[in-house]
Amino acid sequence: MSKEHKNRYHIADRLSDGASEKSASNSGAPVATLSGRPLLSNRGIPLNLDWVKQVRANTSAVERRAQTHVARRTVKKEWQAAWHLRAISCMDLTTLSGDDTEDRVRRLCAKARQPIQQELLAQLQIEELEIKVAAVCVYHRFVETAVRALAGSGVRVAAVSTGFPAGLSPVQERVAEIRRSVEAGADEIDIVITRAHVFGGRWQELYDEIAEFKQTCGQRHMKAILGAGDLLTLRNVARAGFVAMMAGADFIKTSTGKESTNATLPVGFVMTRAIREYAQETGMAVGFKPAGGIRTAKQSTEWLALMKEELGTPWMKADLFRFGASGLLNDIERQLEHYVTGRYSAGYRHPIA
Asked: Which residues form the domain of 292?
C-alpha cells in the first residue's frame, strides 16, 4: 500500500489502536492481488461520507449485465465437475431453522467433514484432495455443539449474531451476543446491520455500530449482512456495503436468507464492484458471501464466474468467497454423480441433515 493511502486513511493508526500484536504482525502479508496489486486484509478506514454520498447504481444497466452473464457463461464435462468441487470448498453449510436441534447440527457437521459420499469420491479419484466445506453456520445456541463435532477437521464454525435475522435488538445486547459466541469457540461471526440507518442516511451511526461489532469479534472474521432484499435499491446496497467495509468488515454478505428476496446476480454485481473499488482505493481486500436462494449447481457456477470476472481468481477461494447454502450441496452431489455415471440420482440419496 502506498504511503499516500496509509496517510489518507490512517491505516497505521488503525493498526496500532486496539489491534492485537498478531494483527500487526500479519498486516504486511498480502491476502490477494487485484490487477497485479497486492492487497492486505481489511483493517477498516475512517468513514468517508463524500465517498458514500457519491455512490451511484444504474439499475437497468446492472440488470442487463446480469442477464448476459447467465446467457453466455457455462462450463462443461471435467471443468464443470472441478467448478462444483470448488463450490463445495467455499460453502458455509447452514441450518438456521426454528426447529434446529443438537442432533441436526451434529449431522450437518458430519456432512461438512465429508460432503461427498465415499463411493463417489473413489469414482472421481479425488480422495487425496480431502474436500470439505469452509464452515458450518448455526445459531449461537449450537456453537459449542458444532465446535465439538468439527474439532480437528479444519472446518470453521460461524455463528449468526446481533439479533439475527432482524437485527433490531438493543446494540449492547447484540454486542453481548457476539461476545458469547466468541467465548463459545466460534471462528466467524455473521452480524446483521440496522437497515433503518440506511433508509435514514445515518451513515455515521451505521459505521459506529459495525465498527463496535468488529472490535468485539476480535480476531474472528466478521461478515456483515446487508439484507439486500430489504434495502429496496441497488444504490442503498452499494452504500451500505461501502460503510461496512470502511468499518472493518472482513466480508460483506447479501442477505440473511430470511428476506423475501435474497441473493440475486444484480446485487452480486453491485457488491463485488464495490469491493473492487474499495480495494483499488485502499489496498485492502474484502470477501463476499451471497446467501439465500442459491440451490442449484448451475447457480453455483454462475456465481463463481461472476467472482472470476469481476474480482479475479483470489475471490474464487474460501478465504474471500463463501456460499451461504443448505440445499446447494445436495444438487452438486447429484451433478457429480451424473458426471461419473451418466445418470441422475434421487435427491434423497444425498441427505444433508
From this structure: 45-349
